[in-house]
TrEMBL record:
Family named by the database record: Belongs to the G-protein coupled receptor 1 family.
Organismal lineage: Eukaryota, Metazoa, Chordata, Craniata, Vertebrata
Taxonomic superkingdom: Eukaryota
The protein, known as: Olfactory receptor
Species per Swiss-Prot/TrEMBL record: Rangifer tarandus platyrhynchus
Gene3D superfamilies xrefs: Rhodopsin 7-helix transmembrane proteins
Transmembrane parts of this sequence: 26-49, 61-83, 103-121, 141-164, 201-226, 238-260, 272-292
Domain G-protein coupled receptors family 1 profile: 42-290
Chain's role: Putative odorant or sperm cell receptor.
Cellular location(s): Cell membrane
Length: 316
């Protein structure tokens, strides 16, 4: 609902990025609900498979388990509200709720991006400097990098969210998106919106910097793999990086489409599709990529499922 009195303060936002036809919303609700359940269960399986198998207690799988844990909360920041909006006619969110959604969604996304960068560097050291790998990537450093990725991801957004919370919102309150995001929210502020360009530049620099580090790491890794004389050795080395590379392309590919366009505008339906790509589809495919492309992970998951069967059998 857009307020008629332009001087009154807006207390809630309305999402206008959802389908217009009410009767067909169930067709969107059911697939999205199934995808969300799959994301939660899939990432929990990956997380506990790594944690409960002592053979996988190494830096690479530790980072994968942390990434899977973050994915659960990353999707929980937006998808439950999307599901509610699909079955509700109101489709609103309070300003505080919007700020919290933006903060947790992007903080978790930042943490995942930093963790993906850390994972790329880890693979670089493991393949390009294997003799020194055990002394460089110690369990202590691995823990510090995991915790540091999460802490930095959450701290870096605090000033930005604090600044947005001080802005006045007194005009139209329609967010042309399916969840709260910086650009559509800032456009509703009753003040100079030139800061949007500065926000875009800051986000672009962060994204490009991470992509460059990861890309350079994998270019160096692939170069080293191609120098391995045996085909079996090349295949084994590449299999340890293929899943990371796939997740990197999914994550940063969709994020780049969303945040590296500056003043370019897309049709609303394309905006919604791109938002679904990095908020829903990328987390959906990540557990599949990690479980299908990794032999050790498949073995660990089978062990976990067998333990569950034994537990339920003994309980009954």
């Amino acid at each position: 609902m857009v307020r008629s009195n332009q001087t009154s303060m807006v207390t809630e936002f309305f999402f206008s990025g959802f389908p217009k036809f009410e009767d067909g919303n169930l067709l969107f609700f059911i697939p999205l609900f199934i995808i969300y359940i799959f994301i939660i269960i899939g990432n929990l399986i990956v997380f506990f498979a790594v944690r409960m198998d002592t053979h996988m207690h190494n830096p690479m799988y530790n980072f994968i388990s942390i990434f899977s844990f973050l994915e659960i909360w990353y999707t929980t920041a937006t998808i439950p509200k999307m599901l509610c909006n699909l079955v509700s006619k109101k489709r609103t969110i309070s300003i505080m709720g919007c700020l919290l959604q933006m903060y947790f969604f992007h903080s978790l996304g930042n943490s995942e991006g930093i963790l993906l960068t850390t994972m790329a560097i880890d693979r670089y050291v493991a393949i390009c400097n294997p003799l020194r790998y055990p002394t460089i990537m110690t369990p202590r450093l691995c823990t510090q990098l995991s915790i540091g990725s999460c802490i930095f991801g959450f701290l870096v957004l605090l000033p930005e969210i604090a600044w947005i919370s001080t802005l006045p919102f007194c005009g139209p309150n329609q967010i042309h998106q399916i969840f709260c995001d910086f650009e559509p929210v800032l456009r509703l502020a009753c003040t100079d919106t030139s800061m949007i360009l500065i926000e875009d530049v800051i986000h672009a620099i962060a994204i490009i910097f991470s992509v460059l580090i990861i890309s350079l790491s994998y270019i160096r890794i692939i170069t080293m793999i191609l120098r391995i004389p045996s085909a079996e050795g090349r295949q084994k080395a590449f299999s340890t990086c293929a899943s990371h590379l796939g997740v990197f392309l999914m994550f940063y590919g969709s994020v780049s489409l969303m945040y590296l366009r500056f003043s370019a505008t897309f049709p609303p339906i394309l905006d919604t599709i791109i938002a679904l790509m990095f908020a829903v589809l990328a987390p959906f495919f990540n557990p599949i990529i990690y479980s299908l492309r990794n032999k050790d992970m498949k073995i660990a998951i089978k062990k976990l499922l067998c333990l569950q069967k034994v537990f339920y059998a003994s309980a009954s």
